[in-house]
Amino acid sequence: MRDRIDRRTFLRIAGLSLGAGALYRVGAFAGAEGQDAARALGRATGEAPAPFTFVQLSDPHVGFSGPPNPTGTQAFERAVAEINALPQRPDLVLFTGDLSHESEKPGEHAARMARFREIAGRLRVPAMHAVPGEHDAGLDGGALFRSFFGETSYSFDHKGVHFVALDNVSRAKPEVGPERRDWLRRDLARFPRTAPIVVFTHRPLFDLRPDWEWFTRDGDQVMALLEPFENVTVLYGHIHREDVHRAGHATHYAARSLIFAFPDPATTPEKKPIPFDPARPFRNLGLRRLDARREGGGGLAIAPTEVELTLRKLSGTEGFAQLLRPSSL
């Protein structure tokens, strides 16, 4: 698959979508129009745009126990260790939900959330941010998540990029809801149309596969609020597999899970986890490396290379080592 990115696009996928998540590089603005956008954004955020990298991790489901992955948190813990070993420390790590696996046993869900926080706390990065998944917030409307991490929807600016954490799981229906949409509308109002916006959420904000619960009920209304902006990136989890979807100015990227994979809905009739293979324990938890390069027309082309993480038993995120190659960063 090849996918063009307009030359004005600020957020550049520089190499890399890891099986356990994704590492993104944010490049500098280019050209006169880009410089105008940078100045406008700096006035809006008070920060000078500058290149940086960040990592997305998703769906570790801490506390999950079952045949699809009997190794528990090993992939998650390995991912943390490999991120810490990267030669270029990411500025941010974003978690796109299902940090924990819910439990109705008194105290158990809180213990699992605390375990997630303990593992994530080993990350040696300047900042971490998270949104809840339905396994974090479905039983209590997000109360436990808030007690550990604060609000479920919020925003912040980082080196010229506006990040929006958007909760689409803690209501009775799989939706963002009118109150959070109003908040998002107000939050975006101060930015010029050229401002790069990164939204991270749990469920997809488009109808990817509604009969598999891969949708957000009011996703169209959310994307309508983002439609005026020229550079919108949506990062999400939930589907436990990679996916890229483009619509208008927005590109949506799903990260793989840190616990087990779901099959391709285009070729599989049932939504069942891909069976665990002890001979290849991290099959489908591999990485997809994306190389960005110029084409004749001046645009950027993305050429992915699939790499499975089965070279070493229980190696988990061994693919992170690929990032050590100079050509990758």
Description of the molecule:
The protein is an alpha/beta fold and 329 residues long. It has helices at residues 31-45, 74-84, 108-120, 134-137, 143-149, 178-188, 219-226; strands spanning 3-5, 11-12, 21-26, 52-57, 92-96, 127-131, 154-158, 161-165, 196-200, 231-236, 243-247, 250-254, 287-294, 300-307. The strands form 3 sheets. Strands 7-8-9-10-12-11 form a 6-stranded mixed sheet, with no helix packed on it. Strands 2-3-4-5-6 form a 5-stranded mixed sheet, with no helix packed on it. A 3-stranded antiparallel sheet has the order 1-14-13, with no helix packed on it. The radius of gyration is 19 Å and the shape is globular. Residues 53-241 form the Calcineurin-like phosphoesterase domain. This is Serine/threonine protein phosphatase.
- Number of helix segments? 7
Query: Which percent range describes the beta-strand content?
Result: 15-25%
Q: State the end-to-end CA separation.
A: 21 Å
Order of helical and strand elements: EEEHEHEHEHHEEHEHEEEEE
Radius of gyration: 19 Å
The rough form would be described as globular
| Largest β-sheet summary | 6 strands, mixed
